[in-house]
Specification:
The complex is a heterotrimer. Chain A is mostly helical. Chain A has five helices and no strands. In chain A, 66% of the residues lie in helices and 0% in strands. The longest helix of chain A is centred in the C-terminal third of the chain and has 29 residues. By secondary structure, chain B is mainly α. Chain B contains three helices and no strands. Chain C is mostly helical. The longest helix of chain C is centred in the first third of the chain and has 21 residues. Classes of the chains: A mainly alpha, B mainly alpha, C mainly alpha. Chains in contact: A-B, A-C, B-C. Chains B and C meet through helix 1 and helix 3 of B and helix 1, helix 2, helix 3 and helix 4 of C.
């Protein structure tokens, strides 16, 4: 798993990675209208990133993306999720309150069955925060475990 | 009794996973057994949410106050299953990291040969 | 037969097997759960109060948001633990 695979595998994964990315982001963004949401879409995008890791080798991928940056991204997602909960405490006097319903600001159209995307209060924002957290977390786990099993085979105790 | 087939499938999954945990000696096979028990519990949670001739709890086309509301299945066990699947992934990641460290330190994956050689 | 550990494992496994098979045949039949008022309330009022068409997302993020908060914490702890276990200490 340290070196990459042949040129055919690299070309096919280059072509199909944007399609997997758009499919996963579509599942995350429409989480309040169709089945799906933050966790499911994040798992789809993370498996697309694992396909890139397998095709190019773990040494090349670790040279491009360090796990420090992925850890910072995941912490940003967690802070955004908890920040939305505390904003519910500030604006609505209840922890985790859906404070955008009834205000008339942005995500406030009534849900009628065939709804548009500007419904459901703070749920789309929470979907994006959780989706970012899951993408960064699962990619960091796979990258760290794949890199650690290549370099240290010569120095077993 | 033939209408309880999903519950019998849950019992079969848990029993196969428990057999792999109790009677096998390779560490990777024990980890796979724990994952099988997890899958059996997730299947049990989804099975509790079904009502006869019901559909998914998603509104498309009509609101809740119109005339012929469709018959929907219960939405709370679906939410509990989502949480359980994510927790299973987290436990599996930590278990596999510990197995890698054990192999690097002892050189073997046999459970009967671990431990006991202090420095 | 082999050792005391195998016999103890076999007794434990058979007790759990009898318990599981017996209880799988004695639950309610598949498709007829007992009626709950909580789920009926969620189905009726989820489109008006939360404003989402997806009732499952309404339960996950609004009616039971604390479970999602705990799950996000578990995921963060798992990633932190894996990165900690594979850290290379630079001399």
């Amino acid at each position: 798993m340290s070196g990459g695979m042949s040129k055919i595998v690299k070309t096919i994964s280059n072509i199909s990675f944007p399609l997997v990315l758009i499919y996963g982001l579509y599942i995350i963004a429409h989480g309040h209208l169709t089945p799906g949401g933050g966790f499911q879409g994040g798992a789809v995008v993370a498996s697309g990133c694992a396909m890139i890791l397998v095709a190019y080798g773990s040494i090349w991928t670790m040279g491009k993306i360090k796990e420090k940056h992925l850890s910072i991204l995941e912490s940003l997602g967690a802070i955004a999720f908890i920040g939305l909960a505390f904003l519910g405490l500030i604006f609505g006097f209840v922890f985790f309150k859906n404070f955008l319903i009834g205000e008339g600001l942005i995500f406030d159209n009534p849900a009628l069955g065939l709804s548009d995307i500007y419904t459901a209060g703070i749920i789309p924002l929470m979907n994006f925060a959780v989706g970012l957290k899951v993408i960064a977390g699962l990619f960091a786990i796979v990258l760290v475990m794949a890199y650690a099993t290549t370099k240290k085979e010569a120095e077993t105790k | 009794m033939i209408y309880n087939i999903p519950f019998i499938a849950v019992a079969a999954l848990v029993l196969i996973g428990l057999y792999a945990v109790v009677f096998k000696r390779n560490l990777i096979k024990i980890v796979i057994g724990i994952t099988l028990i997890e899958s059996g519990v997730n299947l049990f949670l989804i099975t509790l949410a079904y009502r006869q001739d019901s559909t998914a709890p998603i509104w498309h086309g009509i609101t809740a106050s119109s005339n012929n509301v469709p018959f929907m299945s219960l939405p709370v066990p679906h939410a509990l299953t989502l949480t359980s699947i994510v927790i299973g992934v987290a436990v599996l990641a930590l278990m596999l990291s510990l197995v890698i460290h054990i192999y690097r330190h002892y050189g073997t994956l046999n459970v009967n040969k671990l431990g006991g050689d202090e420095e | 037969m082999m050792s005391k550990r195998t016999i103890a494992g076999a007794i434990f496994f058979s007790i759990v097997a009898v318990f599981l098979v017996f209880s799988a045949l004695m639950t309610h039949s598949f498709g007829n759960p007992d009626e709950t008022e909580m789920d009926q309330y969620i189905i009726d009022n989820s489109q008006g109060e939360v404003g989402a068409d997806n009732s499952v997302t309404g339960v996950v993020f609004d009616y039971r948001g604390f479970d999602t908060l705990g799950e996000a914490t578990v995921l963060f702890t798992a990633v932190a633990g894996v990165i900690l276990l594979f850290r290379r200490l630079k001399k």
